[in-house]
Write a structure and sequence with these properties.
The protein has about 525 residues and is an alpha/beta fold. It has twelve helices and 22 strands. Strand 19 (about 385-390) and strand 20 (about 395-400) form a beta hairpin. The chain is globular. Bound molecules: flavin-adenine dinucleotide (FAD).
Length: about 525
Amino acid sequence: MFIDARALDDRTLVESDIAVIGGGPAGITLARSFANRATRVCLIEAGGLEPDPASQALYQGESIGIEYPLSGSRLRWLGGSSNHWGGYSRPLDPIDFEERDWVPHSGWPFGIEELAPYYPPASEIVEIAPAHFADHAYWQKATGEVLPVPVTGRMQMRYVHFSAPTRFGARYGPELERASNISVLLHANVVNIAASAEARSITHLDIQTLSGRHHQVRAKVYVLATGGLENARVLLLSNDVAPSGLGNQNDLVGRYFMEHPHLGGFAEAVVADLKRFPKICRERVAVKGRAVQAAFNPSEHFLREGRLLNATFMFGLAGKYAGNGESDPESSVAKRDMLKAARHFLTNDNDGHEPAGAEGPAPLGYLLGMGCACEQVPNPDSRVTLADDRDALGLRRIRLDWRLTEQSRRSLVEHIRSLAMEFGALGIGRMLLQVAEDGIWPENVNGGSHHMGTTRMHDDPKLGVVDRDARVHGVDNLYIAGSSVFPTCGAANPTLTLLALTLRLADHLRAQV
Ligand SMILES: Cc1cc2nc3c(=O)[nH]c(=O)nc-3n(C[C@H](O)[C@H](O)[C@H](O)COP(=O)(O)OP(=O)(O)OC[C@H]3O[C@@H](n4cnc5c(N)ncnc54)[C@H](O)[C@@H]3O)c2cc1C
C-alpha cells in the first residue's frame, strides 16, 4: 500500500515490525525481501513517485574539499539515485575485502565468500543474470571474437554488465504497493531517529512532511537506507540522546568518505587493426539481450607485488587516424610525435584488414578514448559533517570534505603505465601517456556518484560504526543498508555489492524478527 504522509492526520503514529528509512535500491530491496510474509514492513521515503524540486533541494549542502555536487549526485524520490544510475555492475574483487598491510584502514570483517551467495540474486534484481564477470572463455564463445589475453602479468580482463538500467521505483514499486504486509509512506522525511536513554535502542522515528505534518513510526527493528552520504547525516542529526549523533560514540560517523576517483584524458591510444581490439573491448555488446563490456583491471598478483590499489579501465572508439597526424588538428606536439612513431607500426600491421570506404582511403588506424575509476585509500579526514545552514525542514545541511591521498594518485599513475605496457605487449596499438608526475588531481578528478565508507563496518566499535551484521555498534535494533558500510571500496561500481549486502541483511533480520 502507498500512503501519502501529507494526507495523514497530523501526528499519526504508524506501527510496524520493521521500519526501513529510504526507498532507494537498498531500502526497496530490503522491503521486497519481506513481501507477502507475516512481518509488517513500513518503507519510509522522503520523496514521492516523481521528482520534486522542493524535496531535491533538501540534498543541497556544502562541499569544502574536492569539489563535489551534493544534490547532482543523488535523487530524492522513490527509487533514489537508481532513477538516473548508469547500470554498470560488477562485484568487488576478492582482494578488496582483505586487510592489506599497504592500505591503511583496509579490511572487511569477512571475505568475498560471505557475499558470494548473494551476488547472483543481486544480479537478478538489477536484471543482468546470469552474469559472467570473469569468464573470458564464455565471452570469447558468445562474441565469436578472439579476445586479448594479457601477457605482462600486470593486467587482467573483467566483464562489466549493464543493467537495463533498472529504475527501482518504477520496476519494483507496484510490487510493494500490492504486498499485503508492506506500507510505503511517501513524502515522509525522517528527521530524527529517537533513542531510549543511553541510546541503547531506538524507540521511534520522527517524520516531517514539507507541508508541515509531523508523524511517528514505531517498529521493532529499524534499517537506515538513505544513501552513502545521507546515512551519516541522519545519524549525526539524531542527537537528542547522544549529543554527537547516534552510533558516533567513537567519532567515526561521517569519516572515511570514499568515492571512486574517475579520470579521463590521461592518455592517447591508437590501434591499427580493430580485430586485435575486439568490439567488446571498445563498446557495449549485446548478448542474449544483455549488454556487456570488457574492462582492464590490475591482476591480484600485481596489486600485491606493487602494493597498489585497485582500478578499472575501459575504452571507447574516438575516431579514425589517417596516419598523417591530421586527424586531430588540435593535437599536441607530443601526440603528433606519437602518431608519427606509430605510423610505421600501423602501416606494417594494418595490412589491408580495413578496406577502403566510400569516403576515401582506408584509415591507418583508430583513436581510442579511455576512462578509469580507481580505489581510494580510506581516509578519516575525508568526511561528512553538518553545516551551519539549515534546510526547509530546519535541519542542518550536509557538509562534505572529500579528500584523496598521494598514495591513491601514485597507484593510479602506476596502473596507467601498466596499461600502456600491456597495450604494446599485446600488439594492440600504441599509447601516449599524458600523466604528469603530479597535478593529475584533485583538479582533474571527478567522482562517479558512488558514496561509500561513512558508516564503515568493523568488528571493533572503536574502528567501525556497524558490526559485521550491519547493526550499529551499541544500539540493539538499528541497522544500516547501503554502501556507507563499505570499509574499502575496490574499483567496481557499488550498487551490486550494496544489494548483495542488503540481501544478506534481510536473511539476518528474518532470523531476528
Ligand atoms: C548519475 C549516477 C550514475 C550512477 N551510476 C551507477 C552505475 O553505473 N553503477 C553503480 O553501481 N552505481 C551507480 N550510481 C550509484 C547508485 O545510484 C547508488 O549506489 C544507489 O542508488 C544507492 O542506493 P541506496 O538505496 O543506498 O541509496 P539512494 O539511491 O541514494 O536512495 C536513498 C533513498 O532514501 C531517501 N531518503 C533520503 N533521506 C531520507 C530521509 N531523511 N527520510 C526518508 N527517506 C530519505 C531518498 O529519497 C532515496 O530514495 C550512480 C549514481 C548516479 C547519481
